[in-house]
Every structure is written in structure tokens, then in C-alpha cells.
Amino acid sequence: xxxxxxxxxxxxxxxxxxxxxxxxxxxxxxxxxxxxxxxxxxxxxxxxxxxxxxxxxxxxxxxxxxxxxxxxxxxxxxxxxxxxxxxxxxxxxxxxxxxxxxxxxxxxxxxxxxxxxxxxxxxxxxxxxxxxxxxxxxxxxxxxxxxxxxxxxxxxxxxxxxxxxxxxxxxxxxxxxxxxxxxxxxxxxxxxxxxxxxxxxxxxxxxxxxxxxxxxxxxxxxxxxxxxxxxxxxxxxxxxxxxxxxxxxxxxxxxxxxxxxxxxxxxxxxxxxxxxxxxxxxxxxxxxxxxxxxxxxxxxxxxxxxxxxxxxxxxxxxxxxxxxxxxxxxxxxxxxxxxxxxxxxxxxxxxxxxxxxxxxxxxxxxxxxxxxxxxxxxxxxxxxxxxxxxxxxxxxxxxxxxxxxxxxxxxxxxxxxxxxxxxxxxxxxxxxxxxxxxxxxxxxxxxxxxxxxxxxxxxxxxxxxxxxxxxxxxxxxxxxxxxxxxxxxxxxxxxxxxxxxxxxxxxxxxxxxxxxxxxxxxxxxxxxxxxxxxxxxxxxxxxxxxxxxxxxxxxxxxxxxxxxxxxxxxxxxxxxxxxxxxxxxxxxxxxxxxxxxxxxxxxxxxxxxxxxxxxxxxxxxxxxxxxxxxxxxxxxxxxxxxxxxxxxxxxxxxxxxxxxxxxxxxxxxxxxxxxxxxxxxxxxxxx
Length: 687
Description:
Helix content is 1%, strand content 39%. The protein is mostly beta strands.
């Protein structure tokens, strides 16, 4: 079995150090005994009329694993043990399984005719009747070629798949087939904004074996099979389906060895595995990253020869290479090798960086893989081959524990709901990215706010429609959300704040309304006593709670602070602001000092304006490191737990320290993200 992109990676996020210490029950590289039965979980699938080949996998925000054969929970327990059969008497070859950001599962099957079957399931595994499950005709194909077709689900829910064009349309001058990309809307219809009516073509190679989407929506594929590129190619397409002429040469990088898989890093770099067992990394525009491995290439550590079959990227930057070797006695051994972000072997994993997987099935030749939220790697242990086999086995491999965290770190929220961890100071270690479904599912770039829970390891993200999305760095999201308002199709939510005493949360709407919400076992709190509400006027910008959760303030766009009380308490005392911008919608965020005596309002230019609460004087002026007069670029504000200073977040993801009073300037941050577009939304710190 070739891996290709039958293993669709949906790397959502990871775990905190507390979760690692709790689950360290096996050596790194061993099967994880807490998963199923001794590290394995078996599914049964009924396809009486069809042959099913491969088994693409996807991972959901709660850590469960989804494949074409069913779904298992984070602990290996079978949640659903079979899916309805596709229609007709075709042979079906599954080429993609992916989660849309709202948790619905998209399955894409290749048939033995010139059609592709696309269907969607609800998060519980039942058929989604609102999705028009359908055959998508491929007019450019005489017959679809098994093993050269891939599929993925983008962060905005759109469905992309690649196939080999074996017909006479747009063939290479040599007469060999070309590749075609097709993109569907989240509801299954053709996407008219992609290529020509949803179809885009490339004749740089003929057989694709991996397809990934970069964080900015660009698409990358690896492929083989044209005389001009005997090894293979990596091709790049812009989000509209046109070739990226700035990538390599006319959108193509040629490789001397055949690529078998590739992944896109959050920073835009592309990691490619080739059949000879080596890994290479390319910059976003295709240039070799010579700082990776040795001269840009990380070679296998397996003695003799290993055939690579797949690649997996962990959000902490570690890279797993899947493959198999065969000795002179025809004994086949499967391998999972682990490399660090610089392309060097992680020696604490397995034996010198190599885990010999005790899951091989003769003839399988490799395993699809996903990274679960808890950051273990799950592989498809087969059989998953065409024929009468009626079971599929998943196995989970224990990963190395990360080093203990030092100092303070935090998270930056991007517009699509992604959380990007950062460290503070040279000795700090960035906390692992939080685990949960992205908040940008209602439409692209719809995340509006982020607030940490009292445990400092979980959070809630709010989208533009008021939808709340639990995320966690402790291996499991906080649980389902209850009680909050929800306005589908209406960009009206502006912020989210979670009570520090664990009594619930509040969603802020654009008119100044506060809507209680609960999560997991926590019931929604009572509706707060507010002091301002502006129906029909989009003017509220942020909400913050005092450290004791007794009340807080709504910030309007002019810099006004409007007190409210919680738990039927009277409104918080008025704030004595020292800056107000009447008629000028420029205020962006608000944060309190740890003692609740006052705080700062952030304006869009990066200015910090102190205020006191009640009889307290406002804190001293802040010494900032960045200020952009005339440029509305500042987006978030956070004050450190010791009250010595904090950070201003700009729209590109940059973090700029400031000091309070006579305190020393906080150290610069490392990690996180930095974008050349205004996609950053909020920042929090987590000790």
C-alpha cells in the first residue's frame, strides 16, 4: 500500500505539559497502551458491493480519529463502527477523509468509472442530509487512475481533490496524462472562484501522491511521471487555482528522487519526503532550506535501504517519516523515524530515533498517519486493501515528552481560529498549541475573540456569528457550550471573556450586549447588569472582567469604558479614563492590572491609555516599544501576571513589549506567527 495523501493530515493542535506527565505510560516509540487494546483499535466496515482501498484518516478537535471505516475516540473506543455503503456496484477507492471546521466529516471516493463520489457525515457519524452527496463527473478523464488521486478539506470547509487526466484534454506534448485539481464549495457544489468553474490543470507531472493546503490557502502537490521531471515535482497553486509563478520555475520545483508525501509548515515552508527515505525542506517560494539537515536534506538512519511511504508533521515542529525496509530473508519491518525541526534525529525516540512498528501487514508497505490533539501519532495498521477484508486496525505510537516549560508563554489567535503559541524570554519554552476545532468555519477569517479558562490550559474562541469553540492544551476540550446566543450569517460577535472563578463566560455583541455561556459542566451565569447598550450601532470593541470576576467593562470604539456587574451584582465602579476619542472609532482592547486597581486601553495606533477604577489612581504611564501614528494596526493587549508590563499585538502577529512605571522592559517573545496580512486577532498569556 502506498501512503500518498490517503493520509490526510488535519493537524489541529497539541497538549500541555500537564497532559504529558499524566500519559507517560510507555516509552517513546512504543505502542500507547492507553489506546484501545494494548495500543490498537479495530473497526469493522460493511461494503458488501464494493472494494475499498487505502484508509485516509482525519483527527477531530476532541482527539477522536475518523477514517472511511468508522470513528474511534481519543482512548481507542469505537464511536461508530461502520459507514453506509456508497451507491452502485463500482469499486471504490477512498482518496480523502477530512474534517470541516465545524466537525462534519467529508469523504471522497474514486470509482472505477469517470466519477468521484463525495459525501458528508455529521460529527456523530450519521449521514448529513443537508449535504448533496453526489457523483462529481470528470469530463477530462477516460478513466480515473487508482493511486494518483488525493483530497483534502481546507480550513474554510472547501473540498479539493486532484486526479490524473487520462483523457485527451490538455495532455502533455509527450502524449502523457496531466493533473487536474477540482475544488468544491463546503456544500458540495463546484467552486466558481477556482480555476475554470472549479477545475484547474497542470501538465508538469501526471500522478499526484500528496496534496496539502498552506495556511494562506495556497495549494501544494507532489507528483511523478513526466519525462521532463524523471524524479518528480512539487507544484504550487494559488488559492484561486492558478499556478504560483513565483514558486520554483513557473510554479514547479523538480526533484531528482521521487516524492511520496509533503506537508506545509505554519511558517509557509514545505517539507517533502522522497522514496529513498530522505526528507528535504523548501522555503515558501521553492528555494532549498540549506539549514535543514545537512545541506537541506535529512537522511534516513535505517541501516541499508528504507522505502519511505509517508510524512507527518507535529505542531511542535517534530517530523515523522514512515516507511519500511526488507532484509535478505524477505522480512519486512515498518519504521517511524522522528526528526526535530532542524532535520536532526530525535535520539530519545525508539532506538536512536527509529521506532520499529509492530503493526505491519504483508503487502501494506506503509501507513497513513495523523497527529492527535494529545500529540501522539496514529497509524493505520491495515489491512485496508481491496478484497474481502472487513476490518481496519488503528495503532497509536507514544511520542517523547516535551521539556518542562520555563517562564511565561501564551497564544496568538488568528482570523481563522488558529492558536499560535509563543515563549517569553530566551529561557522560555512556548506552550504547545491549543487543541480544538478552528473557529473560522462559519466563513473564512471569522474568529473574533479568545479567553483562557481558570485552569490556564483551556480556552474558548468566539466566531463572528457568536459560535463558541472550546480548545484545550490538556488533551481534551472543555466540553460542549451552552446558553449563548448564536446569529448564523450575521457578523455581530465582538469578544469573549471567561470568568476567572470558573462560573461561566460572556459573549459581547457589536451593540454592547453581553450573553452568558456555559461550557462542559459549568452552567451559563446570570445575565449581567450592564450600563450601556446601543441597538443597531456597531460600536462595542472589547470586554474584560476584573480579577475577582465581580464585574467588568465593555470598551466602545471611542475609548469609553462601561461597567457591568456579574451574578446580579451592581455595576463595577466607574473607570477614571484619561483618554476619550469622541467620534473616532479607534479603541481596540482593554486589560486590567493583576490587583484590579486599574488598567490600560489600547488604541489602534498602539497607544496605551491608563485608567483607575473607583477611588484608585490610574497606573503610571507605560513605556512602549512600538507606536504607529496614523496606522490602525494594533489589535490586542495583555498584561503579565506580575503586573510589570505586557505586550501589544499588531495585526500581523508581532508582539511588542511595554513596561509599567519603573519596571524593566519585558523580554521579547519567540515563536508564534508573523503574517504579511492583518490576520491576528487576540493575545493571551498562560503561566
